[in-house]
Amino acid sequence: MNQAPDLTFLILFIHHLTLVRIYYNKGGFGVGRHNLNHFKKVIYICEIYKEQRFYYRQEFLLNGIRWGHPKPITEKTFVKRRKAGFPVIYRFIDQLPPHIVRQVQEINALIDLALDTKDKAWFKQLVKKRKKLIGQ
């Protein structure tokens, strides 16, 4: 005996297909679009090196895998997010962060150039900036 399909089920199924098609056309299933906000968790990190503090924002997938690189943020943003209840991590580190080391290396190269050109004002400015970066 053949039964006619339930009309309610058929209407709901067609409605579902229409919604999926609309979502797909807006780029919801596109490969180039990262709609992972439902699967990501943001953690704010404060790294403490001697007397200096470096603040970052790091995204993690829900299974604990890190998503991208830590992005530097300001102290103001870090405090604001901590007060808003976001998860916060404090780390004590033994070495300067890699991006600070790169900046110091670039400044050292400029200091060499300032010495070669005998520009005392530029030399003093660069040494002051380097000391500020490495916390002296």
TrEMBL record:
Please give the InterPro entries that the UniProt record associates with this protein. IDEAL_dom, Virus_scaffolding_prot_C
Name the UniProt record assigns to this protein? IDEAL domain-containing protein
Q: Coiled coil located at which positions? A: none
Top-level lineage group = Bacteria
Give a Pfam family name. IDEAL
Q: What is the lineage of its organism?
A: Bacteria, Bacillati, Bacillota, Bacilli, Bacillales
Q: Where is the IDEAL domain?
A: 92-130
Q: Which region is the signal sequence?
A: none
